[in-house]
UniProtKB/TrEMBL annotation:
Compartments, record wording: Cell envelope
The name this protein goes by in its record: Periplasmic binding protein domain-containing protein
Species lineage: Bacteria, Bacillati, Actinomycetota, Actinomycetes, Micrococcales
Assigned keywords, A-Z: Signal
Residues annotated as domain Periplasmic binding protein: 51-300
Signal peptide coordinates: 1-24
A Pfam family: Peripla_BP_4
Length: 360
């Protein structure tokens, strides 16, 4: 799912006005961070996060680990993470971002509470000379870099392996995310496109699992008594709850989509489920790629307005690796670094597919 480059063509007068206001109000501008040879050095990097959950905590850990490495090498001089208070409030995050701007960061990374309400403050940051990177969201702005996964691709990745596992025939239950949200709309639309090519697959029901195992379990339990034999429950993760619902009903376990956290993957392995079940989720490791995309931009390299990256997929073949690697509440993340990020950028500029980093 891509967006036209016309987001760069917002009114110049508005941008000029924002620039004048911000530059008048800031206590300075980002520091000169270009060393000999054009390599960025001594960057100040700030991450503004809209809310905290387990997936975001993994993302933050990946950011801090990579930023610490870059600090040791001198590329980064200082880094910080600020989590907006409240329940994903765009107003509170906008205030937080303006406070961060007063600290004159060279790079401002934003995981937005709202892709629309935060546009003005993002453009203020750009006008102040800050390199802004929007992470894990779309945002239609005249500036900045967007680094994200593709929700339509997530819809495909959460369905196609299940269809393959059941041989393209049988009754399934679709497990939806947050119905009405932009991610779920793209996710569901792609699933409908794929299902149109599978006339022997019948959607016996749809449930609103909210991408949450406990909710998915409750929703499945409520309808399972009236369902025919179910071959698969593809969709927005929640596989552990789905399995428990089928177990409590004494029914055969269908192909499910597990979460990518250590607890869920360990449950999968310990349950001995080997029927084509899998795990697919957006990638908290994208934050590392976002950091290196910002560095590439500051170096003067060409970087696409949108850097769209592959999701995380766990299969029976690599399940052992992830179970041995992850903590209970940690989520699987693709191992992005400078080399793989540069390769992804080059692929996008060439119109090629982006390769998933190899497992360590």
């Amino acid at each position: 799912m891509t967006f036209p480059t016309t987001r760069r063509l917002l009114a110049a007068a508005a941008a000029t006005a924002i620039s004048a206001l911000v530059l008048a109000g800031c206590a300075g501008s980002p520091t000169d961070t270009t060393a000999a040879g054009g390599e960025p050095q001594g960057l100040k990097v700030a991450l503004s996060n809209g809310f905290v959950n387990g997936w975001r905590l993994t993302l933050i850990d990946k950011f801090e680990t990579e930023a610490a490495k870059l600090k040791e090498s001198g590329v980064v001089s200082d880094y910080s993470v600020v989590n907006a208070p409240g329940e994903n409030s765009a107003t509170e995050q906008a205030s937080q971002i303006r406070s961060l701007m007063l600290q004159n960061p060279d790079v401002l990374m934003v995981i937005p509470a709202s892709s629309t309400a935060l546009v003005p403050v993002v453009e203020e940051a750009c006008a102040a000379g800050i390199t802004v990177v929007i992470v894990d969201a779309d945002m239609d702005t005249s500036c900045g870099i967007v680094v994200r996964n593709d929700y339509g691709q997530w819809g495909a990745d959460s369905l196609q392996p299940a269809l393959d596992a059941i041989g393209g025939t049988g009754d399934i239950i679709l497990n939806r995310g947050v119905i009405g949200s932009q991610p779920d709309e793209a996710f569901y639309a792609r699933q409908q496109e794929i299902l149109a090519d599978y006339p022997d697959v019948k959607v016996a029901a749809e449930v609103n699992g909210f991408c949450d195992a406990a909710t998915a379990q409750k929703e499945i339990v409520a309808i399972l008594g009236s369902m025919p034999p179910i071959a698969a429950v593809p969709g927005c993760i929640g596989g552990m709850g789905v399995v428990q619902a089928f177990q409590s009903a004494g029914r055969d376990i269908p192909v499910v989509v597990f979460d990518t956290d250590g607890k869920s993957l360990s449950f999968w392995k310990e349950s001995g489920i080997d029927n084509g079940s899998f795990a697919a989720l957006t990638d908290p490791g994208q934050i590392v790629a976002a950091l290196y995309a910002a560095i590439a931009k500051l170096r003067g390299d060409e970087v696409p307005d949108e850097v769209v990256l592959p999701l995380v997929q766990v299969t029976q073949e690599n399940l052992d690796y992830w179970v041995e690697t992850l903590g209970t509440d940690e989520y699987a993340a693709n191992a992005w670094d400078e080399e793989t990020t540069d390769a992804a950028i080059a692929a996008l500029l060439a119109g090629d597919d982006v390769a998933v980093p190899a497992l360590p």
